[in-house]
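subagent[fold] <- orchestrator: predict structure for attached chain, return C-alpha cells only, no commentary.
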Amino acid sequence: MLKLLYSLGIYIASFVLNLLALFNPKLKLGVIGRRKTFKTLEKHINRNDKTFWFHAASLGEYEQGLPVFEALKEKYPDYKVVLSFFSPSGYEVRKNSKIADVVVYMPLDTKANARRFLNLVNPDYTIFVKYEIWPNFLLELKKRKHKAILISAVFRKSQSFFKWYGGFMKKALFAFDHIFTQNEASKTLLESISYNDVSVSGDTRFDRVSNQLKIDNSVDFIEDFKQDRLCIVFGSTWPEDDKLYMDYINTLDFEKVKVIIAPHNIKPSYIESLKSQIKVKSICFSELSNKKNLSNYSVFILDTIGYLSRVYSYADIVYVGGAAGTTGLHNILEPAVFGVPIIIGKNHSKFPEANALIKLGGVTSVSTQAEFNSAFKTLISDKSHRKNQGLINKKYIEKNKGAVIQILKFIRI
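subagent[fold] -> orchestrator:
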C-alpha cells in the first residue's frame, strides 16, 4: 500500500511542482533543469566510462559530502563524476563544481526515470548524503548490483523506516551496501530493524571545515577594514537575528571594535534596509570599487557569497544566524574551526553540534535581548574568556574529524 501511495505521491508532486513553477522562479529553475537532465548525461557520459555518482539534496548536503567526493576524485582520477542535486539552491550554486564532470538535477523518483538515469550513468559506485533515500532509484541500483552507500546519515524514531507501515521505505534502506551514521543513536535505530551494515563514522562536515585550515584564508579587503581592532562577525543572519544585534551594534565603541555583517539574504532592497538602521559609518562589498580607505568604516556588510568561511578567520567573536527564528541554525562548525567563541539564538535543539558545544561551553545560546547584550559584553571585555571559549570549539572540531578516512577505507572499486 505504501509503495502505491508513494508512486502516486511522486506523480502528484510532479504536477504540483510544474504548476507552482509558473509563479515561483526558484521552483521553475528545478522544473526546467530536470527536463534537461537526460540530454546532458547523453552528451557528457559514454557507455564505456567508469563513473561515480554523487547525490546531495542541496548545498548543505553537498558541502557535507565534499571531503569524501574530493578524496575519491583524487584517488580515482580516471573515473568520471556525475553530481546530482534535487534543489535549485544546490544546483545553481555548484553547477560548475570542479569535482564533477557533469552536474545535473536528479529526476523525480519514478521507476522509469530510475531506469533511464542508470542506463546513462551506469555508476560503478554511488554515494548519497545524509537524508537522501529515493526508493525507486535505490531499488534499481540494487537490482543491477551496483554498489551504493549513505554517508553522514541521521535517523529519528519518528521516520517511516521504523514504523509498522514502513516496509517499502525500509526496503530502500536495505539497498545500501553500507550506511555511515553521524551518531550511535542512528546506528541503534537501524539495528532495531535488522539493518546491520552500519558504522558510526561521525559527521563529514568536521573534515570539511578542518580542510579550511589548509588553505589561504586571507581576504585583502577584510584586512584593510579590520586593522588592529577586535572583530565581530554576524554570519548568515536573518531578520529575527537583526532584531537582536542591530540596536546593540549601534552602542559599540568603534574605537576598539569592527563589525562584519554577512546576511543570508543579499537582495539590494534588504541590504539597503540594513544600512538604513546602522547609525555609524558602514560600507558594503558592492561599494568597494568606489571606496578606497576601508579603515575609516566601522561596519562592513558582506552582500556577496563565497567569502564567509574565510572571513571567519578574522573574527574574534562570531554570531551565527538562523536560530533566533525558525529558519534553522546555520553552520557553526565553520567559525568553530578557527577557535573563536560563538553566540547563537535559542532554537538549536535539532542541531547536535550546537547542543554539544553549549554543554562544553564554547557556544552561548541567547533567548532575549538582555542575554544577547550580556554575552557580548563579557566576550568583548574579557580576553581570557574569549580565548578559552574559542579553544573549546577548536578542540571539538579536532576531536570529531576523521569520518572521511573511515569511509574511504570501506570503499573498494
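orchestrator: received. Logging for downstream: The mean pLDDT is 94. Residues 251 and 279 are 9 Å apart (CA to CA).
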